[in-house]
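Hi again,

Forgot to attach this to my earlier email, sorry! This is the prediction with zinc ion bound. I've pasted everything inline since the attachment limit keeps bouncing my files.
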Amino acid sequence: MTKCPDCGSAVMRHQACSICGKYKGKVIINLEAKTVKKTKAKKSEKKAE
Ligand SMILES: [Zn+2]
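Structure tokens for the complex follow:
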């Protein structure tokens, strides 16, 4: 285990951080895409009202 230099969470070596999605300073997992999906879901809920 090693520490993520970005958020300080314990991360498996040679794997992207599951918290911030970064590995060696680069964003490997696009966490923003998940946020966009959540935002869209909220919008659709408003339409249902
Ligand atoms: Zn991190």
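The chain has one domain: 2-48. Residues 2-48 form one domain.

That should be everything now.

G.
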